[in-house]
């Protein structure tokens, strides 16, 4: 749509800006269906009978020509109804989205059907008919869509590394930055190379023990225990989110070497080894 020009307008005048904006709205709506037809089309109902005429007015449907005529950007949101509760939402930034309004359990809801023109008019109407079938069978399309997404996420067999990074991102908000970085670096160095690419639901206790044994072989007994605890926390998070059925680290209790306490020599022994007199002796 060509830019609208109005005579006798001044830049910076509030009244002039309001009048110009109103004129733009009137000029844009001139080529659109009437307000009553658009509202009735969005609701999926026929228009009211005309005065003096017993016939009813069918809601105007969208056509490829009407879709091409939509010039963007516009100074306001516009909704173009196609009938059967299907409508096209036009944003001021020029983006266009297919939406469908429906009622379920006495509640008004809106469902997204895609972005135009990636989703054509024919495809949008096909999706609308599928949603109507679900409503006729007593199924809420929004709930059905969320359930399908959850089932798809569970069917992708997430790996241990994916779940571990998700767990770390969740917990890192409560940790200081240095400790959060330390936990992730330990997993990346010792655990991910061994079982990081394995589906978390298929990992068995011997695989975890083999990875932790390599840490023990370096003499880092305390570190081995800490990494076992981190692996167990990842598995418990996977169980809580439905990606695993059990924590295999529970079967590895007592399988690691005890760290024990490191014995430090007393001060007198150290002084004697250095050839110095003990603290209680007289010189």
Per-chain topology:
Blueprint: H1 14-29, H2 35-43, H3 64-69, E1 78-83, E2 86-90, E3 96-104, E4 107-116, H4 121-136, H5 141-154, H6 160-171, H7 177-195, H8 205-217, H9 221-240, H10 267-273
Antiparallel strand pairs: 1-2, 2-3, 3-4
Summarize the structure.
With 283 residues, this protein is an alpha+beta fold. The protein has helices at 14-29, 35-43, 64-69, 121-136, 141-154, 160-171, 177-195, 205-217, 221-240, 267-273; strands spanning 78-83, 86-90, 96-104, 107-116.
Can you describe this structure?
With 283 residues, the chain is α+β, with helices and mostly antiparallel strands. The protein is 47% helix and 11% strand. The protein contains ten helices and four strands. The protein has helices spanning 14-29, 35-43, 64-69, 121-136, 141-154, 160-171, 177-195, 205-217, 221-240, 267-273; strands spanning 78-83, 86-90, 96-104, 107-116. It has a four-stranded antiparallel β-sheet. α6 (160-171) runs antiparallel to α7 (177-195) and α6 (160-171) packs across α9 (221-240). The termini are far apart.
